[in-house]
Amino acid sequence: MLSNDNRVGLGNILADLRGYLDDNPPALTLPPGAYTSPELWQLERERIFNRSWVLIAHVDQLAETGDYVAVSIAGERVMVVRGGDGELRAISPICRHRLMPLVETGAGHTDALTCRYHRWRYGLDGRLRGAPHMAGNKEFDPRDCRLPQFAVNTWKGLVWVNLDAAAEPIGAHLDLADGEFANYRLDDLVQIDSWMLQWRANWKLVSENGHENYHVLGLHQQTLEPFVPGAGDLDVRQYSPWALRIRVPFTFPADAKSLQLTEVQKANLSVLWTFPHSALAAAGERVAWFSFIPLSIDRVQVLGGVLTTPEVAADSAATAQTGQFMMAMINDEDRLGLEAVQLGTGSRFAQRGHLSPKERPGMLAFYRNLAEALVGDQGGGG
């Protein structure tokens, strides 16, 4: 009988996490306190989110000079913008004067970044271009004023940012999976839909949900169960601490007239996860990307988009079908389920749950990467 002790102390939570690094890890979920502990949240900010690659956009959203996408990663605001020189830059959109955010989170277009507090203005490269009535301050040199920059990478048309400006490129890890995803022509795909939502759940609950298909039996009985049944066995391959591939069998082979897929690719949903919370899911001619960016202990910003081949995108009926299928993977069924689970983690009777064989391969892979990031020798995700 498992104890119903929530084990909210950080030391107890980390002790449980270390168990996932064993050769024979416990087939148990995280302790409930892992989803509510302020101390663990602060440790995650330091050891995971300050040094992890986060998927935030597709290049179609950043095609023109001044196009931008802005997000908040565990409280740190970041925007990626296309500069006049054609380069993508990840910069801090916080005014260097009085800390006013220069843009709201979301996607948009701008010619310059102007603070609405005191009208300080910055170029798309982050350099200060104007500061009203500052000439009288002889200690202030506008040439020294520039918005901080972060690391930005593009891989197969997907745009990633890292709060660590010196981070190793994410492509070094994702390229390890290139052989399994090359037939999907990711470089050629176009985006036909996108979303930015907010869920009231801890980021780990959301990532767990994406590392197993068992929940389809309950949450997606009418939408996904007929196509990717929850009783299917997962095939999991770990490429590196950052990159993990999960295959989920289809009920029937996927349509792929505009792609030359193998029989295995036609027969399975192939998901490429990037620790801690980003993924792309390939289903025949349909590919969706997802990013579950933590805002706080119990808030997640959900970003994503639907990609398809130019041939399918030119067919309005096929495009509608593609969007409908992919949106079923990110609809309110998951949100309502995960928000309910988040409430359950606060119960005084909450305890660690036994993992089903249907969820064990993916969940334990995620837990191992989490443990490696928080208590492993490197103290980081990669």
From TrEMBL:
Gene Ontology molecular function: 2 iron, 2 sulfur cluster binding; dioxygenase activity; iron ion binding; monooxygenase activity; oxidoreductase activity, acting on paired donors, with incorporation or reduction of molecular oxygen
Stored InterPro entries: Rieske_2Fe-2S, Rieske_2Fe-2S_sf, Ring_hydroxy_dOase_asu_C_dom, Rng_hydr_dOase-A
Cofactor: Fe cation
Keyword set includes Oxidoreductase: yes
Residue ranges of every copy of the Rieske domain listed in the record: 53-161
Pfam families noted in UniProt: Rieske, Ring_hydroxyl_A
CDD domains assigned to the protein according to its UniProt record, in alphabetical order: Rieske_RO_Alpha_N
Keywords: 2Fe-2S, Dioxygenase, Iron, Iron-sulfur, Metal-binding, Oxidoreductase
Name under which the protein is recorded: Aromatic ring-hydroxylating dioxygenase subunit alpha
Organism: Mycobacterium simiae (Mycobacterium habana)
